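Subject: Predicted fold for Helix-turn-helix domain containing protein, 365 residues

User T.R. writes:
Posting the sequence so we have a shared reference for the thread.
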Amino acid sequence: MQNATPSGIEHNSVLRWLPDEVHLYLKHTEKGTSIRSLARDMGVHASTVMRQVRKTEARRDDPLVDALLTRLGAGVRDGQADLDPADHRQDDTMEDPVSPHMMRLLRAMMKDRAVMVVSQGVDTAVVLAARDDGDPVTLAKGPTEVVEVMALRGWIEGNTQGRICRYHMTAEGRVALNRMLAQAESRATGFAEAQTPFMGLAGDGTRGKAARSTQRTRRPIGADSPVRVLGRAKGAQKPYLSPDLVRAAERLHRDFALGQCAVSGLNSWDRVQAAGQGQGLAVRAGHPSDRKLDARRRFSDAITALGPELGQIAMAVCCHERGMERIEADMAMPARSGKYLLRVALSYLARHYDQVAGDDHDLIY
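User M.O. replies:
I've generated the structure tokens; pasting them so everyone works from the same file.
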């Protein structure tokens, strides 16, 4: 297979998991496309593209990231890697060959005292954990190419000096694992991936200068959600959303997905409130859909605790993953006020979760 990595994973399968800035970086460095040309295609200022390119270049200090970008760059030059996102970002995540390895490695790194070991020149990474007697035990193994994607996404970090590198799981990695597990549980219960637009408003299905469509496209595989973007630190600055607020947002999204709220019409605060007052959220003991109904009840309780105003913005950002500028326009909010209102909503949401039992983790593990 000419367009595959040493482990047999195709280049395009790896590209599905990379953010847009990496695609821009490869187009600029390998295809020679100018910064201004890329900015025109995206409909943004050239400085925006330049920052994204420099951000990706700075990540090459990590040997895993450098090896991944070097190999993908060679694939782009040889025509073996397709940088057109429209051609390779529409597949189901669970059908991608990277996903099983990703989930297995991330779940293993959740264990106590787990560390990922990557040796230079070895095509397999190993997750180890120290036993009480001091000897390490192997928890999982996976292709180095998958670990390289995890390093580029910021899901693992650690000591990258020497021939043997050791990595630990980051908060972003835990969030990504929760999201993948929730998606897997949703598919197992028949949850449709395409969600209905928030408040009946159409999403922006294209990028750059393309016209808006009436169908909302899926978020690219592995791309950061709006909450995770606001929860990342920028240089020496602290993240806008603290880790506890990000966890609260991810918990709301998980219950929204597990409860199949999108396909059940629970897309606004009014509908959630109406369903909570009726029998739509009642749980019947011993029924096969108990877990779905439990998640739907937890979601309804959380949204009701927020109230209509904060509940709407929490659903728009956490559940439907709409961009902040779109939300501000749709809800007639002042420019750049959405982030502050979201932080207020997530603060109320975090306090709500602190007051209830956190016994929902067994539904997805």
